[in-house]
Amino acid sequence: MRRAVAALWLAAFGCDRAAPPIPTTVSPEWQDVLRGLHGASGPASPAPDDRAAWESLQAGHEAQLEADAEAALARWGPSVRDRRVGPLHALEVTPRGVRRDGRLVVHLHGGGYTTGSARSSLAGSAAFADATALPVLSLDYPLAPGAQWREVVGAVADALAALDAEGQPLARVALFGESAGGGLAAGATLALRDRGRTLPAALVLWSPWSDVTESGDSYATLRDVDPVYRYDAHLRAMAAAYAAPADQRQPWVSPVYGDYAKGFPPTLVQGGTHELFLSNFVRQVQAIEAGGGEAKLDLYEGMPHLFQRLLPDSAEARLALAKVRAFVDAHVAPAPPGS
User: Which of 275, 314, 316, 331 is catalytic?
Assistant: First the structure.
């Protein structure tokens, strides 16, 4: 299982640097996975405006992660059905033993704004659904470079507003984002607020890419430690495909630059200390707190990107998922009895 996780990760991302020391302070399961991640090489991202190359990359990404999706369905056993939410297609993931109390989780997948889908990210949405015992609605938002940030953020904001209009109050919705989906979740919430719309009750962000520029201490200090991403080889082109450099500090694109004094939902940010994005996590929480909002930074020793979904039975992932459930239960109230 652990070798399979490492092989799947390398197929999807790849890396091209010497192996850093394996931390002995993480669980034995993760020590095995981290050993398996080293020594591989993966292709660089296409040019930002090469739509054909990005479409080919997306198709390959989906094919590589199909086994991951099937494994998630077998592991967690949810029911899955297609839905339409405003302008977007979605998958509704309903866990075994679901709590039907009027609450809903809306999920935004990762993939650097250029790859990924509700289908290929079932490992995250199914794990979240099982941990919280709540239905999860995973949105297929438009991908860059076919769509840039204004269209993408607008589509997600419109889908959330449509849920509210259709009788699913956002006051009983938790918004969950992974990686780029985490940055998009925070950016779309800022967009809703700036437009005077209703906001979700709470946000849960796993490893959010909440600053798409190469800013923050960890982009330098963890450059050769993160086993998943390099900014020059992977992230720079993804960021440019999503937003022109002049727009990359716009708060809907990079929400670490947002003004949170105007209000924002309680937010849980989870990540690992081996992530290139570590400074994003710290700065995102500090930005919310500086604006008077409530935010919790929940970091895990030695963990890489999206560790919760990659090895969900590890001690680290079990603890993180338990904290997710506690946070959602504390901040997203169920519907009153009889309503």
Answer: 275
